[in-house]
Design goal:
The chain has about 240 residues and is α+β, with helices and mostly antiparallel strands. The chain is built from 9 helices and 7 strands. The chain is elongated, with a radius of gyration of 26 Å.
Length: about 240
């Protein structure tokens, strides 16, 4: 009687583990409930998170997805604010200099032109891409996704891929830090005043960082297979009207 009791407990524990494993396999059979870690290719079961929580890979701690309280309309508001700041950030003077009685100013595009005049083509192209084109493309991509234009125009997958590229190359913070380092070196030899373009560029940097934190591409990726399946069904030649 005493030996039968542990055996019964072992059998019940085995049954519970078997049922839990079977239920887990059934949940993972759904392609929408499984995701692949982009860093280490680990298959992970997708779970519903509380608000303002993030999911990380248990193996490499890569950020996978999060659940935010931001709605697409709020993302659109941030991107529209970024569009309004672009002309001031790119064309307004970042700094005003007075050196040896000569007044001059500098903005982002003028700095790129100076690099081109100095035959620094690779550096000029890198600054143009990282400080102007990539941040602008990031705003355009997130606006197209949040407003539904990407899905309406049939470029949802292309827009998501471009946003993934732009988010790695948008480096306004690197440009601003480099500018501040140059300012500290010029203070001793010139009269330096900050321009309105620097303020707009700083706010644009904060907007881009906020969008990178709050934007979750997973819900948009989940719409692509359903959209492809509906298109195949609509173009099925065997389908009768």
């Amino acid at each position: 009687m005493a030996s039968a009791l542990p055996q019964t407990r072992q059998e019940s524990a085995f049954r519970v583990n078997f049922i839990n494993s079977f239920n887990r396999l059934n949940r993972m059979s759904d392609p929408h409930s499984v995701l692949v870690c982009p860093a280490c290719d680990l298959l992970i079961e997708r779970k519903l998170l509380p608000l303002r929580r993030h999911a990380h890979c248990p193996r490499c701690h890569q950020h996978l997805y999060g659940r935010y309280a931001f709605r697409p309309s709020q993302l659109m508001a941030l991107t529209i604010t970024g569009f309004l700041l672009l002309p001031s950030a790119f064309f307004e003077p970042l700094i005003y200099l007075r050196l040896a009685g000569v007044n001059s100013d500098a903005n982002l595009l003028k700095g790129i032109m100076v690099l081109l005049d100095e035959s620094e083509f690779w550096v000029a192209a890198l600054v143009l891409w990282c400080a102007a084109l990539a941040p602008t493309g990031l705003l355009l991509g997130i606006f197209a996704l949040a407003s539904g234009l990407a899905k309406r125009w049939g470029i949802l997958a292309l827009t998501l891929k471009m946003v993934e590229v732009f988010r790695h190359w948008a480096m306004l913070e690197v440009y601003i830090v480099s500018l501040l380092v140059a300012l500290f070196k010029l203070i001793d030899i010139a009269d330096v005043r900050l321009g309105g373009g620097l303020l707009s560029l700083g706010i644009l940097m904060l907007l881009n960082m906020t969008l990178l934190i709050l934007f979750d591409p997973a819900p948009y990726w989940e719409r692509i297979p359903l959209q492809a399946a509906s298109q195949e069904q609509n173009h099925d030649p065997d389908q009768r009207p």
